[in-house]
Structure formats: C-alpha cells, structure tokens
Specification:
By secondary structure, the chain is mainly beta. It has one helix and 28 strands. The radius of gyration is 25 Å and the shape is globular. The termini are far apart.
Length: 318
C-alpha cells in the first residue's frame, strides 16, 4: 500500500511540475512597449512651443523656442534657461553647436552663447532684411546661415553672401562626408562643392516638391529630403518619393536618423518612423505630447527627444 501511495504521489508530483513548466513555456512573450515621457513648462521649459532641439558632446539637450528669445539646457536632471534680451526676443529659429561647445542661434541676426554671455555677430547691413532659418558649421568652423533671402557665411569676422541663392528662402543646410553643402530652399535643392553650384528641382529630378524644409544624410550617404508634400530619397542616382495617405503627415517639419539607421520624420500630423522596410506612425494616442512635431534629436543611447508646437517635449525610449 505504501508503495502504491508512493508511486501515485510521485506521478502527481511529476504531473504538477510538467504542467507548471508547460504553462510557463507556453506563455506569450510580450515585447517591451515604448515608454513616453512629456516635459513642459511645469518641468522647466520656458515655453511649450518648441522650435529646435540639439544635443552636445556631453549629452546635454539644448532647446530653442518658437516665440521665446532664449535657450534651455537639460543635463538629465537640471533645467537651466538663459534668456537673451537682444535679437532673440522673438524666438530661436535655428540652433547649432560648434566643436568648442558654443551655441549658435539665429533669428533676425546671428548670436553665439558661450555658456556665460551672448555675443552678437549679426551683419548690421542686413539685420532687418532677413531671418536666419538654418545654421550649419563646416570643418573649418565657418558658420553657414540659411536665411529668408539666401545664404550667408560667417568666418568669425566677415560675412560672405552667394548670388546663386540671392533672394531665395533657404530652410535647411547639411554638409556631407565630402564637405559638399546641401541647401533646402523654396525652389528645390542646391549643392555647393566650393566651386560649382548644382540644382535639383521637380522638373529635372524626382524631388517630391520644390519646397524643401529639411535634409538629413544617413550612414550610407543617402540624402533624405523633407518637403511640404512628402519625403524624397536620393542615393546619387535614383530618386524615391514616399507619401502618406494622411495629408498632414506629408508636410515634413523635422528629420533625424538613429544608430540603427531608422529614419524619423516629424510633421504637422504626428511622428513617423521608417526602418527601410515598414512605416510606423505615432500620435497623441500613443503618447506624443502634440501631433505638430517641430524638432527631433536622438541622444547617445538612441532615445528620441521630440519637440512639439504647444505640447512641450516628448521623450521616447523604445
């Protein structure tokens, strides 16, 4: 009898562990969800209408605003703001960081913030003529400014202007690995290699629209153009255009590329991600602070910092 009870007990014990192990093995694997955090004026921003976000070599986030003349620094713990009482009182339309860590800001002029002081480098001859909408700094430290009336280059002392883009609104400037300048304008894309200018427009290329608001270059040297009517990719030979069925997502306001090569596009209708295979859309239902995205920056850990027009900043940790 004892032997029978022992046998039955052993069988039940085996069945219990078998059932338990099978239950764990068959449990569905739930992928980790993206985590969203929203930062607003309550947390330390000067304003919830974000214009620009850029990240320095130390990982500090620098934020410019659409209608506040100052910048905010976030080191991951503390928020520190510095407000200019000068030219930037109407907002920061462009923002860039040089190799020395200086912050360059554009509006109705060009100013540099060295961490302590604002220094005005505006061209007095053109101060009231244009607005600086884009800033890029080349390998020689030259500061290139895209304005509502063309392109100016500042070498630390002297301003130089280029007649090829005179009276043409320039919205974006990027520099590729060969040092070639790429300009997004109201009338297509222009390149400048230091000697020759080349233009790309809808009529003689595969560009989605002549109004090119943003440009980004991926690790393979492929150029991505955000226009007011879709996204264009140019690999040096072939043009490819992408459009979304939702028209508001075709007005591209910002572009960023992460370490995995995924492209992130901000628009007036939300945030889009493209991994070269599939598209993923994000909006307020997913956790985005506001569907009008104005800026995207990717930090060293691959996290996305997304500026919006009215909702502050959305921090996305995938």
């Amino acid at each position: 009898m004892k032997k029978q009870l022992l046998t039955i007990g052993t069988v039940m014990l085996v069945l219990f562990f078998t059932f338990s192990c099978s239950k764990d093995a068959d449990a569905p694997v739930v992928p980790a969800k993206a985590k969203w955090t929203t930062y607003t004026a309550t947390n330390g921003l000067l304003n919830n209408a974000i214009g620009n976000i850029t990240i320095d070599a130390l990982g500090n986030k620098w934020i410019g605003y659409n209608n506040v003349g100052g910048i905010t620094k976030f080191d991951g713990t503390n928020w520190t703001s510095n407000v200019s009482s000068g030219l930037l009182k109407y907002g920061v339309y462009s923002l860039a960081i040089d190799t020395h860590g200086n912050i360059w800001t554009g509006n109705h002029g060009l100013m540099k913030y060295d961490g302590l002081n604002w220094i005005d480098f505006s061209d007095p001859k053109h101060l009231s003529d244009y607005v600086i909408q884009a800033i890029a700094i080349d390998a020689k430290g030259m500061v290139w400014c895209g304005t509502t009336l063309g392109v100016g280059r500042f070498d630390g002392t002297t301003w130089t202007y280029y007649s090829q883009l005179q009276n043409l609104a320039v919205y974006a400037i990027v520099i590729d690995a060969k040092g070639i300048m790429w300009f997004g304008t109201y009338q297509g894309v222009y390149t400048y290699d230091g000697t020759t200018w080349t233009s790309y427009t809808v009529s003689q290329s595969g560009l989605a629209s002549n109004i090119v608001m943003k440009i980004a270059i991926d690790a393979n040297g492929i150029k991505w153009f955000g226009t007011d009517n879709g996204i264009s990719k140019y690999d040096g030979t072939t043009w490819t255009t992408y459009r979304d069925p939702e028209i508001t997502r075709n007005a591209i306001t910002s572009i960023a590329i992460d370490k995995q090569g995924a492209k992130w596009f901000g628009s007036e209708g939300g945030l889009r991600k493209y991994n070269d295979i599939a598209w993923t859309n994000y909006n307020t239902k997913d956790g985005l602070a506001n569907n009008y995205v104005t800026a995207i920056a990717v930090d060293g850990d691959g996290n996305k910092w997304i500026g919006t027009n009215g909702g502050g900043i959305s921090y996305l940790k995938e």
